[in-house]
Structure formats: C-alpha cells, structure tokens
Amino acid sequence: MLEELNKEEYLTNKPEFDTWHSRFHNLVSTVEETQNFPTISRHVIGLDGGIIYPKSEEVNIEEYIENLKVPGNKTMHYDDIFNKAVLQVQQTWKVLDESVYGNGNSHLEYFADWNLDNGRTSSDELEYWA
Fold it and tell me: For labelling, which of 3, 8, 63, 109 has a CA lying 20 to 30 Å from the CA of 15?
C-alpha cells in the first residue's frame, strides 16, 4: 500500500517485516530472561502465561502460514488473507473519501456497526468475508 501511495517514500524506507519480527523477538526474549518488565506489560504480551512469539525458524509454516482457517470452513495462506485485508481497508477508505470529498454522494450505508476486535457486525456477520 505504501508503494502505491508514495513510491519515493517506499523506495527510501521499505518495510522490513523480518527485521521487525527479529528485533521484537529479541526484545521479548530479553525481557523474559531478565524479568525486567512491569507487571501489566508482562500480562499484555503473555510472558506470565507462557505465550511468547517463537523464532521464525520455530514456526510451523504449514499450520500457521500456509493453511490458516478462515470463515466458510476454508483455509487460506497468510499472504492471501493479508492481501484481502488490504483490499478491504483500501475499499473502506475509498468509500469514506467519496462520502467526505465526493460529489455529494454519501455512501455511509456501507459502514456498519463493526467490532474491530473480531470483525463482526452487531448482527454477528463477518462483514469483510462477504
């Protein structure tokens, strides 16, 4: 998305997802080993419950990347899910932009009472999987 919106910024500041993940893992591992983290933060990232991000080489690629369960009793690759989410977010921003800056057309009916934590509407439908 950054590449499409601002090619120059993308070329000078490319996202480095693997680097971010590695640094985050190192930080969390250091915190876990030193126990030097406030109690609330330890709870939020799951150190007390044994939930910790694995190293990338420890991830079961087939289970956690290639065959993720999605609505409709199907499975999808993580990249396909991510791309679907990006398209949905782009569409939402497009509708919002047209509603605010457009030619007087309002598309506010597009927006539902979405729960951003679980992706469901107030009527318990998965809006973005339609």
Answer: 63
User: pTM higher than 0.85, yes or no?
Assistant: no
Q: Where are the domains of the chain?
A: 1-59, 60-130
- CA distances, 37 to each of 6, 33, 105, 113, 130 (Å): 37, 10, 51, 37, 42
Tell me if 60 sits within 8 A of 75, measured CB to CB.
no
Give residue-wise pLDDT tens across range 40-85: 455 555 555 555 666 778 889 999 899 999 888 999 999 999 999 8
